[in-house]
Amino acid sequence: MDNNPGFTLFLGVRLVARGSRAEVTAAARHLAGDAPLLAFADDTGRVADLDLRPDSAPGDPPPRGRGRPRLGVAAREVTLLPDHWHWLSRQPGGASATLRRLVDAARSAPPSPEARARAAREAAYHFLQAIAGDLPGYEEALRALFRADGAGFRAALAPLPADIGAHALRLAEAGLDG
């Protein structure tokens, strides 16, 4: 996935901005208070949190968490089988360093066509779930999406507001047949 995903901003059911996080944040600041705003990360389709505080107010620093926050390190739990832990303990640099190397190697490898298609369908799913879950056509659209049925997905999007349908289709395109 892209390390710098694009973002899309919706004002109600209308697409109002698309671009970098900074561009979408600026648009959201301008529109804040007019109607419900939802920003989405284009690579995942998930709702994105934007800092809408005015530029002139720096705000309080974020709370300090565990780990090494200046480096972006976050402590989380990993569950492995005993054989996996044994193998990791014999690797140079220990378990954490080995896991980071494995993750970096996997991230630098190009994703398979199946992985790209799955990620596209999941992004469209997350987007539709957040913005269209109670709209007509939603459930049929999801059924077609996960069948990878491009024609069925397009047909099921027809009752949805045009901007929502167009963005869902844009997100899902790589995961659909025909």
From TrEMBL:
Pfam families: DUF2239. It comes from the Bacteria. Residues 51-70 are annotated as: Disordered. This is DUF2239 family protein. It comes from Neotabrizicola shimadae.
